[in-house]
Design a protein that fits this description.
With 457 residues, the chain is α/β, with parallel strands linked by helices. It has 15 helices and 16 strands.
């Protein structure tokens, strides 16, 4: 596709709100643009002069940006249309966004209120704000333009997407998670999903303000991390597992060596002594793949105090449990599950995927001795993300792993605005790991586990 054609692909359509139950918002255009024709001519002139350089793969981003700015200034200085300095600056910024950014999704990536961007081929783009999905009137005019944006994103982290490898996980420069899938797997055209991360990572006070957890829960998790309990964060898609893992990693003392292992680097740890490892897919010839399991094994030879696995999905669960059981205490990870009991069942299944002939009872014994705490996250009907359970893994009773809730969320209903009414309360059970924490010089206050009735009394 010629650059002039790519330019036209940057224009958006005029979608109508025909999806029931989904809010329709116009965030891409706020009204008629009196300078639209002028900007179109400016883009066409610019692309005409930069055609060869913009398609040159060896040209650096800084060089291309400088060339764009120079040509824009030259074109604007030659135009006969009277423009104020502010108008010139705005036009130059908008055109630069289209050329150097990611087309129609660029402004959503810059919008701090947008937490997720969902592109379904050339259909209207959907975004998430405040836990609610909204439809915009922005869209990619052609699948080719969307493919170019996807390729630009994945190429920046050394990955590829083509018919031989039609699915890819990648990240943006700010760490935002990217997933792309193209035909033939995506029947209706390429699909792009971007989970944005805040430029300023959340801290524990932010999660308390958002009511994701309470001060008492934060205090307990702080003690658990500093006391080197192995912690598993469980939850469904979009419940905030990675965000919570990132916040909890902030409780790790600064004098410890941390090794993080992820499919695509997302964690934003603030400690100085951190080694970040990222898996690698196979190349065009099907070689060179490095899996999460490979990285977990390698991390054991890197003298880690803590191993943080972004998410366990398969056989690497066995290696992670082995690390937890062989001196690497205080390790953490996440997995997809709807309850602490489901989390243990899924972990058991993933260990069995390693292909070793291990009795189920032995696997459960291994899990119960490795995992100390499970933190369950849920996304409520009003879009809020809450910790709904903090559960202690007590041990084995026969062939069953026994657990007990320390904190639990109770839902009492929904108010007139659709907000969930309820809160987290202590169950009144003092966890058995409290003795271990006390021995480590991290005693837990008895008030922390007092129920509402006990506090009222």
């Amino acid at each position: 596709m010629k650059l002039s054609e790519r330019l036209k692909a940057l224009d958006t359509g005029t979608a109508q709100p025909d999806t029931p139950g989904v809010e329709f918002i116009d965030t891409y255009r706020s009204g008629p643009d009196p300078l639209a024709d002028f900007k179109t001519k400016a883009k066409e002139a610019l692309y005409g002069k930069l055609e060869s350089r913009a398609l040159d793969a060896t040209l650096g981003e800084a060089e291309l940006r400088s060339a764009v700015v120079r040509e824009l200034e030259r074109f604007l200085s030659e135009t006969e249309i009277p423009l104020s300095p502010a108008e010139r600056e705005r036009i130059a910024e908008e055109i630069s966004e289209d050329i150097l950014g990611y087309g129609p999704i660029q402004r959503f990536l810059q919008d701090r209120e947008v937490t997720e961007v969902m592109v379904n081929s050339t259909n209207p783009i959907f975004v998430e704000r405040g836990g609610k999905i909204s439809r915009t009137n922005a869209r990619f005019a052609t699948e080719e333009h969307l493919r170019q944006v996807i390729e630009r994103i994945v190429a920046s982290v050394g990955r590829r997407v083509d018919e031989a490898s039609p699915m890819v996980d990648a990240r943006l420069p700010d760490g935002s998670r990217v997933n792309a899938i193209i035909p033939p797997l995506a029947v209706d055209g390429p699909a792009l999903t971007i989970r944005k991360f805040a430029a300023d990572p959340y801290r524990v006070d932010d999660l308390i303000a958002l009511k994701t957890l309470t001060p008492a829960m934060a205090s307990l998790l702080d003690h658990c991390v500093r006391g080197k309990l192995n912690i598993l964060i469980s939850g469904g898609t979009g419940t905030g597992k990675t965000t919570l893992l990132n916040v909890m990693s902030g409780f790790v003392p600064g004098d410890e060596r941390i090794v993080t292992i992820e499919d695509a680097v997302e964690l934003q740890l603030l400690q100085e002594h951190v080694v970040r490892l990222e898996s690698r897919p196979p190349n065009v010839e099907g070689r060179g793949q490095v899996t999460i399991r490979d990285l977990v094994r390698n991390s054991l030879r890197m003298r880690p105090d803590r191993i943080i696995v972004g998410e366990v999905r398969g056989a690497e669960a066995l290696d992670m449990l082995q690390a937890m059981n062989t001196g690497h205490e205080g390790s953490m990870s996440t997995l997809h599950a709807n309850s602490p009991r489901d989390a243990l069942s899924r972990l058991e299944t993933m260990v069995l995927m390693a292909g070793l002939d291990i009795p189920v009872s032995a696997v459960r014994e291994y899990i119960s001795s490795a995992i100390g705490v499970i933190v369950q996250l849920s996304r409520l009907s009003d879009g809020t993300r809450r910790i709904t359970q903090i559960t202690e893994v007590v041990g084995m009773e026969g062939e069953i792993i026994t657990m007990q809730d320390v904190f639990r969320f109770h839902k009492r209903g929904v108010d007139d605005q659709g907000k969930v009414v309820g809160g987290v309360t202590a169950t009144g059970i003092r966890p058995k790991f409290a003795e271990k924490l006390a021995e480590a010089g991290l005693p837990l206050s008895a008030d922390l586990f007092a129920t509402d009735k006990e506090r009222a009394a």
